[in-house]
Amino acid sequence: MDRFDMLLNDSGVDKNYLAQNPNLTTDQIDFLYATKGVSKYYLAEYPKLTDEQFNRFFNYYGVNKDLLAQNSHLTPEQIDLLYSTEGVTIEWLAAHSKLTAEQFMRFFNDEDCDKNYLAMNPNLTTDQIDLFYSTEGFDKGYLARHSKLTDEQFNRFFNDDNFNKNYLAKNPHLTTDQIDLLYSTEGMDKDYLAFAPKLTDEQFNRLFNDSDVDKDSLAQNPHLTTEQIDLLYSREDVNNTFLLTSSKLTDEQFKRFFNDSDAENNYLAFNPSINPLPLNKWQSGIFNWSW
Questions:
Q1: 70-88 average pLDDT score
Q2: Helix axes of 201-208 and 176-183: crossing angle, nearest 10 degrees
Q3: 10 Å Cβ neighbour count for 150?
Q4: CB 141 within 8 A of CB 169
């Protein structure tokens, strides 16, 4: 079953939505690049590019290089090139890219770089998080929301009476115990817990049966199981658009959404499971996927 082909051949799907899928293959990127009406801006910003594709966008006069700077798959060399390129907003590089230790310190010590963007970077190391925490002049909420925290760092935020714990609830890297602790904490917005972290079956059911939790928040969780997707799909009060864009769908679920007259296939084009994992290095590209 070729999900990309299904969407590509659907006249109701705007191909610009496909171009925003972060999991496109090399061949799919090339195909969309050559497709009339598809904005190259989206292809520059979202999917993982080969060196050749990156250079094609970088040297193309019609592409704003700030879009390349927002691509989260850049190599260290590409980050350095964009950092030294006039007109590129370096905050985008600071916020999205996986930085080397040297690159991190370059951004951290750059007076022209807004450190709040660097604090948003989801790839910070333990030491970098500690350095930020001890530095004044930026919003610590960004660290709590985006970074993978050690138990000690989590507890430091949690026990800070002046800190809004809802930032912690938005963190996608929470452990099972941390989710339980936040759920039982007075004043928490539980919708945030439903939205991002990987939940146990028990935690999912607790949130699902909690009348204070918006089920649309659960529908946006990218870690849902097949059974949880089916359960939410059967609810009339759930906006299925969120299931289309966020969930890892089986073939049967993908076809169900694709053929559902109430579903918007443009949003299905965003789905991260548009391509399966190849069984081996030879099974990739548009024409030879294995399912």
A1: 97
A2: 20
A3: 12
A4: no
Q: Give the residue among 36, 42, 51 at the shortest CA–CA distance from 24.
A: 42
Q: Distance between CA 175 and CA 198 in Å, rounded?
A: 8
> 3-state SS of 71-121?
CCCCCHHHHHHHHCCCCCCHHHHHHHCCCCHHHHHHHHCCCCCCHHHHHCC
Query: What are the tokens at 80?
Result: 């350095």
pLDDT digits (tens, 9 = 90+) for 45-70: 999 999 999 999 999 888 899 999 99
Q: Is 160 left (phi over 0), alpha (psi -120 to 50) or beta?
A: beta
Amino acid 277 reads L
- pLDDT for residue 278: 53
* CA nearest to 196, candidates 159, 213, 221, 217: 221
- Distances from the Cα of 274 to the Cα of 30, 53, 164, 181, angstroms: 16, 21, 36, 35
Q: How far apart are CA 161 and CA 172, in angstroms?
A: 22
Determine the Cα–Cα distance for residues 268 and 60; give it in Å rounded to an integer: 29
Query: Cα–Cα distance between 129 and 45 in angstroms, integer?
Result: 26
The mean pLDDT of 19-35, rounded to a whole number, is: 96
Burial class (CB in 10 A: 0-12, 13-18, 19+), 184: exposed
- Name the pTM for this structure: 0.88
